[in-house]
Amino acid sequence: MRFKSTLENYIFVLPAVLIFSVFYIYPFIQIFHLSFFDWDGIIPFKDAIPLGWGNFKEILFQDPSWWQAMRNAGYITLIALTFQNILAFLLAWACDREIRMKNFYRVIFFIPPVLSEIVVGMSWRFIINDIDGANIINRMLAGIGFPNLMHNWLSDPNTALTTVALVHCWKGFGWGFLIFLAGLQTIPRELYEAARVDGASAWDSFRKITIPLMIPVIVLVAILTILGTMQAFALIIGLVGGEFAGHTSVPVLRILASMRGSSRFGYACAQGITFGMVLVVISFIQYRFSKKAKE
Amino acid sequence: MKSELYYKSKKITLNILIHLFLISVAITCLYPLLWMISSSFKTQDIIFSDISLIPRHFHFENYINAWREGGFGRNFLNSIIYTASVVFGIVIISSLAAYAFARLRFPGRNLLFIMFMAAMMIPIPGSFVALYVLLNKLHLRNTPIGYILCMINVGLSTSIFLLKTFFDKLPKELEDAARIDGCSKLGIWWHVALPLAKPVLAVVVVFNALSVWNEYILALIIFDSRKFMPLQVALKTFQGEFVTNYPLLMAGLTITALPIILVYLFMQKYIVNGVTSGSGIRMKKLFNV
Amino acid sequence: MRKVAWCLVLGILLAGCGQGNQETDKSTITIWHWMTDREPAFQELAKRYVAKTGIKVNFELYAPSDAYAQKVHAAAQGATLPDVYGILGEKRDFASFVKAGHVLNLTPYMNDLLGSWKNRFFAKALAVNEFPDGNIYKVVPGIYGVPIDIMTIEMLYNKDLFKKLGLDPNRPPATFKEFIEIGKLLKAKNMQGLVSGWSEVWMIDCLANNYAFNIMGEDKVLATIRGEVPYTDPDWITVLGLFKEMRESGVLANGTVTMVNKTAEQLFATNKAVFAFNGSWCVNVYKGMNPVLNYAVMLPPKASDKHPMSIWEGAGSSFMVNARSKNKEEAVKFLKWLTDGEQQVYLAEVTSNLPANKDCLEKISPILAQFADDMELATHPNIWGVSEFPLVTETLDRGIQSIVIGEKTPEQVAADVQKVKEREQAKKRS
Fold first, then answer.
1. Which pLDDT score, from 0 to 100, does residue B102 have?
2. Inside any domain, residue A18
């Protein structure tokens, strides 16, 4: 009986595991295998030169531009984790309240994720840039009395990465908004009402009801943000055209450069694996940490 | 009396502040959309010189030309088929798996879950080549079913993760009641768990619909013939290696964005009403409030 | 209601599962290429060919080129390449395709009838697809591709803006010094100078190599690549120094390093920049964006008199015949027809490109003719017979980007490049 019940439980995961094994695990094993070779992706694989751990050693010790890309991605991710998610949370919280036009806002806030990277890149370049744009940001800065802050936000190496990160946050907050909104719905209204009857202020109920009940959702959004941000690259190309002497380079752009620019397919695979491992470690630390925090 | 006025004015101020905040974010969201739509009515020679949001002359023919020259008809239908099939597949498969990970016990459960999570994080560059060779061996290359299966796999991990987080949060009491009533596990999943998870299911639908709708690289690699290609590939026609036809591109992008906005409009009411209506009454009892 | 929805979903699912029918028809030639902007012209030619011979030609065009490159790589692994296709990438990638047996050696066809096919083409366009005797890639010598059109990369200037600056619109700067002097004028009038897609690093590579040829001559450049001259050589520092001078003089437009070429083209076409560094494909682009743009072609202003200035020229697109294709004889026949005078003129007219067939040059537009004028100065890495390590090229290009934004000095960049070069050499030896 118990055996049968366990078997029944496996049926639930069977379709997922099947598809996953064929379309993920199998290619993954191949890619993992390739990462030990010097192979250009064209010649028959039997002619590829085995390197042992050579590719990984090169990534770890001889490839500063890879680690610069990792640092950049980490920086964008930190901004996304804080700025983007706080923005998303606040907007979701505001739209969860009984306010006017909330249906309108709900629709509008989901526009950025829907727009293509080309449109986002072009329209933000138009807002930000001076010669191929309308220089709107700089004009606004001058208008509110900070003319000394005016400069080329995207083509100045000091501000390019931050500007890219902020546009990325703008493009991505819609997802966090949506998931937070779904999460807020699962908190019964009655809890708030009971709290208000007990004389709790809005801030109290936000702190004592909303936040604790939302922790799993916050963790979820945080992990999705890390994944989405670490793997972003199309927007970077749209805004600054590429790696910008390394200032806006990110791991995915490096991987693509190894694959196409220098035809080092094996090396690209090794970079992908290294990158994935870093992400796995970060996410699991975060997952564990939040579980502890909840307990 | 005075204090009531005080509270009222405080509330109004707070509301005004909230609205100011919401509106300013909304403006930045609307601007690129309007820019795209406005550009889609211009012509190639004025698109960069006339930068006003309201074009002087509306070239509606851009839409007709984009539809015709891009050969959208066939590809549009393909995109709808792919998106519907993949989203349907993902919703069923991932909710089954997520429910098992959240509620059922079986050996290897945690290991499997960790595997799915890890898969979500390790991007496999050049997996396209491996997938191509694999599909070729399975005789699924250049077939819609091969593409659909690949795309289901792409969305699976994230969807499982999303759904599990929400299944974990759902109260167990309803399921226990159903079990006592003699409902099978599949029955509980279908009749109890899924309806309760409507908001997050809607998120899963929107998330995957958007990712399938926007995908073009895998499609371009595994399909040889234009007749299987999704809409995004047709859209790339306007973005040639050297010449980009911006007005047609923008018209095409507007056409492409519409269905996904419709899906979202349709789904967002589940995101915000899913729990409060219907199952909400039962929820109240469960929370004992 | 719910049942209806279910049926609908199921129906869609089933409709989506129709098996793809592989077209292995003998009388159809399938061609893959990435130039989607030429689709109407190709389709028209295919129509003419089927009317003439009864052989169907199926052009499948895929954009963007990055995805296309992946598609061709994947198809090479799956041995499912079409009858005819284009290869993106550098010569060594091309060599790998040949060595893997994916490309038909066209030499016998080219030499047929006293070389009547071969002699049609510009020698340099053909050289891009040729592996000479004793090539470093160890490929069987021969011609492995058919050039369809050629491209040259030159400097352009806006004549109207020249007048505004008080310069003679018919006398572009001939020396680098004159060019740099214009920077002051530009600054004074608050105008933008040179635009180019320097975020896509290969265009930087191109200009740097042009000047390297001008300053040290071809032999020394090739010697550097072979590892006999270090990048820290004074001549190379002079080359890198030119970019520093350009930056300091203000002759470069703001943000050139963060521009993709399409942005640069948009600026030049809308009269917002005085100079552009761009390929001959731009004629078509500018025509679309601003039909009345008043511009002309110039050589990059020379920095030295010791050696001639050089420009890059390459096969804009070439077609390769799949050696494993059953239709290869038919495919070769079609390519012969495609590179005939009449078809070449048609392609050149419709797509505003330079034809690979040298007998068709008289029929091109005047501005395109200017691009063709400097053909004898043209060169391309693919015909040098040596190739630099990709990482060295990357370090050089990124280094120049750093110079242009004022982060590094030419000396620092030269040292960086040389370090990478030595590391790569050591790796190769081991």
1. 92
2. no
Domain range enclosing A159? 64-294
CATH number of the domain at C54, please.
3.40.190.10
- Confidence class for position C232, pLDDT limits 50, 70, 90: very high
Among C77, C96, C263, beta carbon nearest to A132: C263
The answer to whether position C5 is within a domain reads no
- The answer to whether residue A34 is domain-embedded is no
Backbone angles phi, psi at C262, to 5 degrees: -65, -35
Q: Is residue C18 part of a domain?
A: no
Q: Which residues of chain B have pLDDT under 50?
A: 274-289
Measure CA of the first residue to CA of the last residue in chain C; give whole Å. Answer: 71
- For residue A122 the two structure tokens come to 């072009």
> Is residue C402 a part of any domain in this protein?
yes
Instruction: Give the pLDDT score at B117.
Output: 86
Touching check for C166 and chain B: CB below 8 Å?
Answer: no
Asked if residue A168 is part of any domain, the answer here is yes
Question: What residue of B is the nearest CA neighbor of C291?
Answer: B45
- Closest chain B C-alpha to A156 CA, distance in angstroms: 23
Query: What is the tally of structural domains in chain C?
Result: 2
pLDDT band at C19 (very low <50, low <70, confident <90, very high): very low
* pTM for this predicted structure: 0.89
Residue for token pair 């803006």: C161
Q: B124 in contact with C at a CB cutoff of 8 Å?
A: no
Query: What's the pLDDT at C398?
Result: 92
Element (H or E) spanning C146, and its range?
A: strand C146-158
Chosen from C199, C205, C398, C412 to mutate, greatest number of chain A CBs within 10 A: C199
For residues A83, A89, A95 and A98, what is the CA-based torsion angle, rounded to 10 degrees?
A: -130
CB C81 within 8 A of CB C94: no
Q: Is residue A25 part of a domain?
A: no
Domain region containing C142: 27-151+314-383
The residue of chain B with its CA nearest to that of C268 is B48
Mean pLDDT over residues C4-15, rounded? Answer: 49
Total domains in the fold of chain A: 1
Residues 211-230, chain B, touching C (beta carbon < 8 A): 216-217, 220-221, 223-226, 228
Q: Is residue C8 part of a domain?
A: no
Answer yes or no: do C89 and A260 touch at CB < 8 A: yes
From A22, A97, A109, residue closest to B25, measured CB to CB: A109
Write the CA distances from C136 to B89, B181, C387, integer angstroms: 52, 78, 9
Residue C300 DSSP label:
P
Q: How confident is the model at residue C23 (pLDDT cuts 50, 70, 90)?
A: very low
The 10s digit of each residue's pLDDT in B69-112 is 888 888 999 999 999 999 999 999 999 999 999 988 888 898 99
Q: What domains, with CATH codes, occur in chain B? A: 65-287 (1.10.3720.10)
Mean pLDDT by 10-residue block, N- to C-terminus, for chain A (295 residues)?
80 92 89 90 86 90 91 94 93 82 86 89 87 80 83 87 94 91 83 85 84 87 88 89 90 88 84 89 80 70
Question: Residue with structure tokens 């059109």?
Answer: C149
Answer whether C93 sits within 8 Å of A242, measured CB to CB.
Answer: no
* Domain CATH code at residue A146: 1.10.3720.10
The rounded distance, in Å, linking the Cα atoms of A151 and A130 is 9
Residues C193 and C262 reside in one and the same domain: yes
| Chains in touch with B (≥3 Cβ pairs < 8 A) | A, C
Same domain, yes or no: C93 and C160? no
DSSP letter at C29? E
Of the candidates A258, A20, A268, C34, the one whose C-alpha atom is nearest the C-alpha of residue B221 is C34
